[in-house]
Design a protein that fits this description.
The chain is an alpha/beta fold. The chain is built from 14 helices and 12 strands. It folds into 2 domains: 123 residues, Aspartate Aminotransferase, domain 1 (Alpha-Beta Complex); 195 residues, Aspartate Aminotransferase, domain 2. It is 42% helix and 14% strand. Strands 2-8-7-6-5-3-4 form a 7-stranded mixed sheet, sandwiched between helices. It has a 3-stranded antiparallel sheet with strand order 9-12-11, with helices on one face. A two-stranded parallel ribbon has the order 1-10. The longest helix has 16 residues. The protein is globular and about 55 Å long.
Length: 366
């Protein structure tokens, strides 16, 4: 059998084959990344429609990569606005968070430098360094002693890459302590804020005002903002470097101007409607208070429940689905076999009754 067909068959044999699904709009959403519920927000959708009416020319394709014909005054202005909001000198927007991380990590480090990753960072970060041919050293999740030990054993130039809020376990990185360790060993720190942005304001780097200690920061707009795209927040010099050497930027057609303007609009909408984040925060705490399977360290919108077996996990997910409750099963190899979990995503749009129904079913099934 051909190699790729053999791999697909083996995945099917283990029951882990991925498939595309179209879910009913009537089902209860506990699985999407639409944390603030903006895709369902009538006022926000009306603002986006008004944007189309006011700037109809922006919805068309950008006609090329930004280094060719795809740049515009609008794109430059939005990136300047985003950088200012987050307290960085520059911002560079990409079509997705995966591409942003692939761009940054595929060109930032030399193969003779030492790169240290939290073992739970996103696949896009690993793929970036693999593309560059740069070996990485993983440290145990949020383990400061392990990170310190590894840094002490490797002289020379060093990079440390973490997430501020992890999607696998929903827990927070000890940012202040990691910064101290990085300073001790002259290591440059980079932070992915994909799951913190929008859930905890503008993210923890901005919230804690640690921009000067974080060499580069990635944020995404396809999650809490319910839009499309991502940005790398950085210095002017790093932006210039990425424009020159980040292949996913150099060789990709730019997003249309409409996407840039919608991102700027979403920043303003979230700022003018702080109650949405407040409702999400309340829903997270309400769920944690009601659910006996809640993980104490999971503080964000993602609330995982770890299972001993994939069979039990898939059974619970399927039974919830029969009740019109959509959740997501995180299976190996996406996560380690002992970390397979039911990933529950809470939203500002989830009602108390929906959360009660979810918790009731979980208590009945587990």
């Amino acid at each position: 059998m051909m190699y790729w067909l053999d791999k697909l068959a083996k995945r099917a044999d283990f029951g882990f084959r991925r498939q595309l699904h179209v879910h009913s709009n009537q089902a209860i959403d506990f699985y999407s990344n639409d944390y603030l519920g903006l895709t369902k927000n009538k006022a926000f959708k009306q603002d986006l429609l008004q944007l189309v009416n006011d700037f109809p020319e922006t919805i068309l394709g950008s006609t090329g990569a930004r280094l060719v014909s795809g740049n515009s005054v609008i794109k430059d202005a939005v990136e300047e606005e985003i950088a200012s909001i987050h307290g960085y000198d520059s911002a560079l927007i990409f079509p997705t968070g995966y591409l942003a991380n692939l761009a940054l990590y595929s060109c930032i480090a030399h193969r003779h430098e030492h790169v240290f990753l939290d073992e739970q960072v996103h696949r896009s970060i690993l793929d970036g360094f693999r593309l560059a041919g740069v070996p990485v050293i993983k440290f145990r999740h949020n383990d400061l002693e392990h990170l310190t030990s590894l840094l002490s054993k490797h002289p020379g130039s060093k990079w440390v890459v973490i997430e501020s809020l992890y999607s696998m376990e929903g827990d927070l990185a000890p940012l202040a302590e990691i910064i101290q360790v990085c300073n001790q060993f002259q290591a440059k720190l980079m932070v992915d804020e994909a799951h913190a942005f929008g859930v905890f304001g503008l993210g923890f780097v901005t919230k804690l005002q640690i921009q000067k200690q974080v060499f580069a920061c990635t944020i995404t707009y396809g999650k809490a903002m319910g839009l499309h795209g991502a940005a790398i927040l950085c210095s002017n010099k790093l932006k210039e470097y990425l424009i020159n050497f980040a292949a996913p930027f150099v060789y990709s057609t730019a997003l249309p101007d409409y996407h840039f303007k919608s991102i700027a609009l979403a920043y303003r909408f979230i700022e003018e409607n702080p109650q949405i984040q407040g409702i999400l925060s309340h829903n997270i705490q309400y769920y944690k208070n009601q659910c006996k399977q809640s993980q104490p360290k999971a503080i964000g919108a993602i609330q995982p429940i770890v299972f001993d077996s994939s069979e039990q996990l898939l059974h619970v997910k399927d039974e919830l689905g029969k009740q019109g409750i959509l959740t997501y099963a995180m299976l190996a190899p996406a996560v380690p076999a002992n970390k397979q979990c039911l990933r529950i995503c809470l939203h500002a749009t989830n009602s108390k009754q929906e959360i009660d129904l979810l918790v009731h079913q979980l208590h009945h099934l587990i």
